[in-house]
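User: Fold this; tokens only.

Assistant: Input:
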Amino acid sequence: MKKLWAGRFKEETEKTVESFSESVSFDARLWKYDIEGSIAHVKMLSRQKIIPQKDAALIMKGLLEIEAEIQSGKFKFRESLEDVHMNIEYALIKKIGDAGGKIHTARSRNDQVALDMRLYLREEIGTILKLIKGFQKVIVSSADKHIDVIMPGYTHLQRAQPVLLSHHLLAYYEMLERDRGRFDDCLSRTNVMPLGAAALSGTTFPIDRKYVARLLKFPAVSENSIDTVSDRDFVIEFISASSILMTHLSRLAEEFIIWNSEEFRFIELPDAFTTGSSIMPQKKNPDVLELTRGRTGRVYGHLVSLLTVMKALPLAYNRDMQEDKEPAFDTVDTVKSCITVLTRMFPKVRFNRKAMNEATLSGFLTATDIAEYLVKKGMPFREAHSVTGRIVKHCSDRNIALAELGIDNLKKFSKLIGRDISHHIKVETSVHEKKSYGGTSKKLVQSRIKKIKSRK
């Protein structure tokens, strides 16, 4: 089969080269955007009288027929035609004759593929933003449902201070909110119309790039033709935002894996989102969470891969840039699948209130409250820290909790300690007295939930 670009070549392309250089095996998924962009391009060519109106009508009719064939599964993509763009153009020429060859007037595959990728990522970013919002919704719902559950808060994976489970869950809401902001920012830089840059220098035809931008709903048009065809920042930025999102999903997955263990027993995962062991009948494995954690590394790898591809490319377009697609496509698929499965699993997770409460009774979680109590009585913080440390050491040596020490024994450590300290070393008091903005008190957490729910 003769290539559409083969005019200056005497020899046919070596079969191994065809196989080595083809991209249609993965970029065929861009067909919808390629046809959408081509129709807008042809409308502009006709409007500018660059091609006859009758040819434009014939081309658009042919493209819509090809679209229907692809949707029905009748269309056969050929590896010998390299990519999705050449497959569609070849089919168009075969279908309508010489008029089909006019579709490529005033454009190059360089700006064509940039357009397709921008259209593709624009749509996928919109989908991911909706998925993130949906996941946030189930997190907030769970936080609201468990507003009275107290658990240990951790630093260094050591029990630190008591917090509301709701406050802990909302930490993930905030992470996802930042993710939404990053994808929104990425969308603004993705949503720029590149078509018309041609190979790298623009074109001599009197095209109207702004008209094409309006047809394709792009709010902006790229400013420099060389930069336009050589830019993959928007793909890198998308995978970067995805990597940070996957970091957050992985942290949640890791935490739930730990909490689901017999050592913690803070949660029980639903059967429908776990698997069994091939040899140990008692096992209930958190495979969904482990796969989310594992696939995070895959997305990181895509980011490093594309950064490495782009780091030393001279201007303008180089074929190396074909390597942007598989990382982008797999990142889209991975992110969407991970958010979707976690969103469906989350509402079915059972939180073990009893185990969480029991965990707050050991580990001296209200030690900081004793120190702050002493500071309020007039003791310098460093001295209060030291006194509290001695109290904790005393209890630890005797294997007793702070509440078991008794007022008379506590008074031995400082004359400032009064009977009112018994109120301050309660877990419930510790939580509800954390009234600084952003803290874990029930009133503050309820206020945050209310504010989140009031948003559209």
